[in-house]
Design goal:
The chain is α+β, with helices and mostly antiparallel strands and 388 residues long. 49% of the residues lie in helices and 11% in strands. It has 22 helices and 11 strands. Strands 3-4-5-2-1-8-9 form a 7-stranded mixed β-sheet. Strands 6-7 form a two-stranded antiparallel sheet. A hairpin with a 4-residue loop joins strand 3 and strand 4. The radius of gyration is 27 Å and the shape is elongated. The protein starts with 5 loop residues before the first helix and ends in an 8-residue tail after the last helix. The chain binds cytidine-5'-triphosphate. The site of cytidine-5'-triphosphate has 11 residues, from helix 8.
């Protein structure tokens, strides 16, 4: 596709007609970055990034109700099924390697030159399709090449190595020789664990996170901790088993870190600013505590016992018929009776109530009881402490 055809494709994209209508009325509107790249590749873009030569707030206001980010001079407009990010052209300079950039007003050409990879350094003016691009950008897009714009790029912003891996995995692109050599030397600098963690989280959300992780391991192995496995064997069957209410991203991560020791894993996830609940889920699911007992379980009640309390991600990773049985059927099993019914029937309050409910649930799983009365009978069968 020719760069000028971007305008034609943009009409078919959510938010595109609105943006083109705005550009008809207001000069100096350029589509930039990932949206141009994706449209040129015939892919559907995520959010639409726009550089505005003019007052960002005023232009954004014509599109809808913008959220203004004063500090960066940017604005976001959310519409029906789309998000448009608007910014004035700017340069970014890095006070220290890996530090957050300092932003200054600039020309559009300078804004293009500050970017991460040539394939993201293309701007298309709306609505006339005028192109302003880094000189190698279109050829690199055609040949599938990931090329940094200058040798200090990964030092300025170490998250770009992770971005490179994400593009490599998603698009099947490869770095040119110089970019690969720079990635091989790249370290985290002063980048916060949180920013690196955000990049990992973006990779985990990709359609094929393993492809991106493999690219990272190939070009910048020092970015991943020892013992990290990019495409663990159990992952594909576990993804098949994972129900819709499971966390695919955390399952992928759990599978990849199974060989790491627990203390190191916990520290790493904390450094990367995973929320505590997500960290705990990854740690629990990656330890295989559920795996052996679940695979060895014989019969429906035993499966219920083995999987009890485990996250669905852990059970999916355990794999096999028992995991499928629990995920698809047994985990949804509910009793019609509750603890109050047992106490009303004379059972002393205490742990025996929970144990009796478990007994009833196992009986129900095995088809030995159905309905309130039979559940009650199964729960009370052999229960000590009944006043009845
Ligand atoms: N960018 C950059 N350096 C970074 C982050 C972003 O140069 N560390 C530039 C790139 O030109 C990128 C644009 O800002 O295309 C927008 O960033 P982002 O939305 O993160 O990139 P996309 O390429 O749109 O990513 P995706 O397709 O994954 O949404």
């Amino acid at each position: 596709m020719e760069a000028a055809d971007v305008v034609v494709s943009l009409r078919e994209v959510a938010g595109g007609p609105e943006l083109l209508e705005l550009a008809d009325a207001h000069g100096g509107i350029w589509l930039v970055g990932g949206a141009v790249r994706d449209l040129l590749l015939g892919r559907s873009p995520g959010e639409l990034d726009v550089v505005v030569e003019g007052d960002v707030g005023e232009v954004a206001g014509r599109l809808g109700e913008p959220v203004l980010h004063e500090r960066f001079g940017t604005a976001t407009v959310q519409g029906d099924g789309f998000a448009i990010d608007l910014a004035a052209p700017r340069t970014e300079s890095y006070p220290a390697p890996g530090a957050l950039p300092e932003v200054a007003p600039a020309t559009l050409a300078e804004d293009i030159e500050r970017r991460d990879f040539t394939i993201n350094a293309i701007a298309v003016r709306l609505p006339d399709g005028e192109v302003l691009a880094e000189p190698r950008a279109l050829a690199d897009l055609q040949s599938g090449t990931l090329r940094v714009l200058h040798p200090g790029s990964f030092e300025d912003d170490p998250t770009r190595v992770w971005r490179m891996a994400r593009y490599a995995g998603r698009l099947g692109f490869r770095p040119d020789e110089e970019t690969a050599a720079l990635a091989a030397q790249a370290g985290p600098g002063q980048t916060s664990g949180e920013r690196i963690g955000n990049e990992l989280r973006l990779i985990l959300a990709e359609d094929d996170p393993s492809a991106a992780l493999e690219a990272l391991a190939e070009y910048c192995p020092q970015a991943l901790p020892a013992g990290f496995s990019c495409r663990p064997e159990r992952l594909a069957p576990a993804l098949e088993l994972l129900p819709a209410d499971g966390r695919r991203d955390l399952l992928v991560l759990a599978a990849c870190v199974a060989a790491m020791d627990t203390a190191t894993l916990q520290r790493w996830l904390d450094d990367l600013a995973f929320p505590a609940a997500d960290r705990d889920l990854v740690v629990a699911s990656s330890r295989w505590v559920t795996g052996e007992p679940l695979r060895a379980a014989q019969g429906r009640a035993a499966v219920l016992r083995a999987a009890r309390g485990a996250p669905v991600e852990a059970v999916a990773l355990a794999g096999g018929d028992n995991a499928a049985l629990w995920l698809e059927e047994l985990r949804h099993l509910e009793l019609e009776i509750g603890g109050d019914d047992l106490i009303a029937a004379g059972l002393e309050p205490g742990p025996q109530v929970g144990a009796a409910l478990e007994r009833a649930l196992e009986a129900k799983a095995e088809g030995r009881c159905s309905g309130r009365e039979e559940e009650l009978a199964a729960a009370l069968e052999g229960a000590g402490g009944t006043g009845a």
